[in-house]
Amino acid sequence: MSTTFDSIVIGAGQAGPPLVGRLTGAGQRVALLERKLFGGTCVNTGCIPTKTLVASARVAYMARRAADFGVRIGGDIAVDMRSVMARKEAVSGKSRKGVEKWLRGMERCTVYHEQARFLSAHEIQAGSETLKAERIFINVGGRANVPSMPGMDQVSFLTNSTLLELETLPRHLVVVGGSYIGLEFAQMYRRFGSEVTVVEKGPRLVSHEDEDVSEAIKGILEAEGIHLRLGAECIGFRRTGEDIAVGVNCQDGEPEVMGSHVLLAVGRRPNTDDLGLDRAGVAVDERGYIVVDDQLRTSVEGLYALGDCNGRGAFTHTSYNDFEIVAGNLLDGESRRVTDRIPAHALYIDPPLGRAGMTEAEVRETGRPALIGTRPMTRVGRAVEKGETMGFMKILVDTENKKILGASILGTGGDEAIHCILDTMYAGQDYTTLQRAMHIHPTVSELIPTMLGELKPLEAR
Questions:
Q1: pTM exceeding the 0.85 threshold for the entire prediction
Q2: What is the pLDDT of residues 407-434, one digit of tens each?
Q3: Does 219 share its domain with 180?
Q4: Does 317 reside within a domain?
Q5: Which of 70, 292, 337, 393 registers the highest number of CB atoms within 10 A of its CB?
Q6: Ramachandran region of residue 134, left (φ > 0), alpha (ψ -120 to 50) or beta?
Q7: CA 83, 87, 92, 98 torsion-angle sign
Q8: Cα distance between residue 360 and residue 376, in whole Å
């Protein structure tokens, strides 16, 4: 059986459903294929469930700190992991069901709960049916990368997806990987009550951030009793009784860490290996990411790739922006590009890190004259009042044109306050516009103008 549509969208992640909404709203007949869970990574194994768990972990953390604020709580603070996970599933499940209901209720949209496989450049197999369309949009996301390491076949391990199904508290969770996913789970489970060790192959955590940011994050985690093993060049695994021995170092320190559970958080890989892209002639790179141009077009006319599978961003907000770019160009007569967007992201440890634009290291690499401003959170009234003074703010400005180049805010409210800076950058305004703005007191954002008033030349190293 063969059915022809105006467009086919593969995947119901962050870019897929809103694109279907725009296409059907423009009068097109659209097929939406989703092989597993509606909502993609964000709704099911990423942002929504993990930040729901982060919220539960913070409640436990603040309850233990109650005496610092003059509040008395009797007895030990206990965490019911079944209830924690039930709350997570309720929040995540509501979003998942909402996405599916929205899609199935769209006029001119046909939903197929099937695996999609290309038969040719414009033909898709969906179960027993063949679907045809001149335009096909690939939004298949990604999954945890599981590299080959010594002894992996001898032990069981967790990924960000399977850990979300665990209803018991690990006695000692060993997290392999010191970046976004690994550090968020590490702090979360430490606050739930697990002993936690982070094993990172590199010399520092979140290596793509500036060294001072990495060092401050290290201090935040160590202050909560999280063990860190950096420079772990000999990572391997072996079963010993009921525990898992994780090889860490071949030369210095204890050579192994003994844990009850192991979480692998060593990057992501795209879900492109079972789509039959070779039959469509779609080019992929050496890691399996679909090669796209600045408007998200693949190597085949009429085929587009959006979201995590195109290697042009690994966040929910970049996926949604991919949708906006494609919809704007195809339906609104615009000429939007991936390179128009300013890099921005957050790391959701507590306190969080908000980042926009270039790092200090990237600015130095350009060799351009720049100004830098910093301010510790100990000098931010809002942070002092909340008893959350770890971290700092940093901003970089082009000396000649006064445009903001980038910023990092590691501290309470940093994930929100960074948007003051990001929006100024998008508006194309120089830093004096933000410096002269009157902000509300008491907030974290109000100290950004103050920091800008104390800029100094970025000294060479």
A1: yes
A2: 999 999 999 999 999 999 999 999 999 9
A3: yes
A4: yes
A5: 393
A6: alpha
A7: positive
A8: 16
